[in-house]
Amino acid sequence: MPKARISRKVGDEQIEGAVRPVFRRNGGQYFLADLEIYADGSIYCWQWLDLAGLKAQLASGRIATSFEEGAEASIYNLASWRFAEPKSWLTPDMLTGEVADEIDRLNQRPDSTGRCLDALRRYLDTRAGEDQDALRAAFEAIPAHLRMYALGDQNAQDWPLRFLTARPGPSGQPEVWFGHRHKPVTEEMHRRAIDYFAHWRQEHDQAPSYRDGPAGAGSPTIRLVQLGMPVRWAHDPGVRVLSNEYPAPITVDSVSYPTVLHAYWALAAAEPDAAERIRLAERPYDAWRLAEKVTVRPGWPAVRAAVMARLLRAKFAQHPQLAEALLATGDGRIEYGGLASPYSTGDGRNWAGRPLELIRSELAAGRAAGGADPG
């Protein structure tokens, strides 16, 4: 089922998460609650759990997947009712499997369906018995209620996988559930599955062609960590030289600034005296703290993205070695949470990272055309 995205902060780290509804049982009552699932494996539902703790709560019935006739249920401060002929589509194992899959997805790892499809492709390539066994195990590891969605085909659902993973044996054994009854698996059913997947691979495994190149990035994502306190820069800070806090002085309109962050907040300040105090701040952290207390100039929200792009152009034009570091990131996404502005990192827009990607593209275009880097 679709899950709402959430996050929580642990120190300076943002932990991504998702939430789904569950029923929490307390005594004889059931309460609709949020089950929060986080990328670090933490789970929250009235208390902090891990997967083992979730299994224990399901086994004890504290988190419920079945309900008693006539029992009272409620949504806090909204409504209450009693169950009449309650039905449940989940078992504890199904719910645990859903949560484990969500943790994998939050970490950008293949979930149980992804692992099954990887095993499927391997078996179709080799037709080896051990790869068929591995495919069967991977298919059965998908939560039972989600197997019908594995192929993304609502007409066929999962019958091709069930036919493919069952080895035909004497007297048509083993059997699979098909068409509301058990049917013996035959060589013909296995061949039908092979034919199905020949067409399925043509549709799913052929990379789409785009006039301007591939849809995805070929380089890994770069993540710049938010610097929420004064820092001492390492001798070789690596990709952190791309951050707005990095001490790379820039000159804009004949005014010098110690960092992009100093410049951004000095230009945002409505009062000249405040702008000068920010510009002269000893460290980026100090500049940021001063900026918290000033009034920004009228119309700043409408121009701040253009201001940031201009400052970054100045930084990489005036520091060629930093331009090389930016170009070295290839075409990877740059995710950046810095001290520039809450606007830069809020609601997933990544407006601190996107300007870096824009300037990188301009630098690459200038390099390809043999022209000057943007300044």
Query: What is the CATH topology of the largest domain?
Result: Tetracycline Repressor, domain 2
Residue ranges: pLDDT <50 for 5 or more in a row? 171-175, 339-343
Largest sheet, in brief, is: 8 strands, mixed
Overall shape: it is flat
In the CATH hierarchy, what is the class of the largest domain?
A: Mainly Alpha
How large, in whole angstroms, is the Cα Rg?
Answer: 28 Å
Average residue-wise pLDDT = 85
CATH superfamily of the largest domain: YbiA-like
Query: Given the helix and strand composition, which structural class is it?
Result: alpha+beta
Count of folded domains: 3
State the total count of DSSP E strands: 14
Strand content: 15-25%
Straight-line distance between termini: 49 Å
How many individual helices?
Answer: 13
Looking at the overall shape, the CATH architecture of the largest domain is Orthogonal Bundle
Helices and strands, in N-to-C order? EEEEEHEEEHHHHEEHEEEHHHHHEHH
Helix content: 40-55%
